[in-house]
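wait is this the right file?? whatever heres the structure
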């Protein structure tokens, strides 16, 4: 398989204008600020939930062109 569809649950708490983006790559994302390698080409997507204190599921983000049998790491 060379593609994936990812979603996240984000709690905007008291921020009306919560934005998000996805980073992914073959390196562990927690090792450095830009460690994941690739940032999905979208400009800080607006979560659009308004002010709520509950998890909101993001739109599905489609990754294509992934290498088969390769471990990918990601973070929102």
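ok assuming it is, sequence goes like this
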């Amino acid at each position: 398989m060379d593609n994936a569809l990812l979603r996240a649950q984000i709690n905007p708490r008291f921020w009306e204008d919560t934005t998000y983006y996805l980073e992914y790559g073959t390196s562990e994302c927690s090792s450095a600020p830009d460690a994941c390698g690739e940032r999905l080409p979208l400009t800080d997507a607006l979560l659009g939930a308004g002010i709520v204190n509950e998890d909101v599921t993001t739109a599905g983000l489609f990754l294509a062109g992934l290498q088969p049998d390769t471990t990918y790491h990601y973070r929102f």
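The mean pLDDT is 82. so i think its the right one actually
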